[in-house]
Amino acid sequence: MIDASSFLRRALLADAIFSGVAAIGFTFGAGAFATLFNLPEALLRETGLFLIAYVALVGWLASRTMVPKSLVLLVVIGNAAWTVGSIALLFSGAVSPNVAGELMIVAQAIAAGVFAELQYVGLGKSGRVATA
To answer: Which regions span the lipid bilayer (predicted)?
Structure first.
């Protein structure tokens, strides 16, 4: 367990809020977003459902003063992987988004990368706590 710095907690909270908005939008508006972005509706809905669970974890971490370092590292690695995976999706040919869809994928990839960096920095600012 570590003593979570306020910087780390704010970075986690911002991630939870951003991801929560995406979760709601993609889960309940998958059909509309599929048309807007020329992306598969199932991909958007399943992404939204995944994000609901993700938001629960990240929101819980943001609400704690003491957090398991391993869980925060998992969130950091997950955000970094989301960034790489999003860009890989664009180049894979598995989807054919329109310009709006490409911009949305790139924007959320950048956001996930920024959150990974902020959370990593927040880990460095957090106090170490030895458990007996």
So the answer is: 12-37, 43-62, 71-91, 103-123
Q: Are 75 and 119 in contact (CB under 8 A)?
A: yes
Segment 22-48, tens digit of pLDDT: 999 999 999 999 999 999 999 999 999
Residue 42 token pair: 């199932």
Q: How far apart are the first and last CA of the chain?
A: 11
69-97 pLDDT tens trace: 999 999 999 999 999 999 999 999 999 99
- Contact criterion met (CB below 8 Å) for 103 and 86: no
pTM: 0.91
Instruction: Kindly report the number of other CB atoms within 10 A of residue 9's CB atom.
Output: 18
Q: Which residues face 2 on adjacent strands?
A: 67, 128
Per domain, the residue ranges of the chain are 2-126
Contact call for residues 72 and 123 (beta carbons, < 8 A): yes
Residues 56 and 54: their CA atoms lie apart, in Å, by: 5
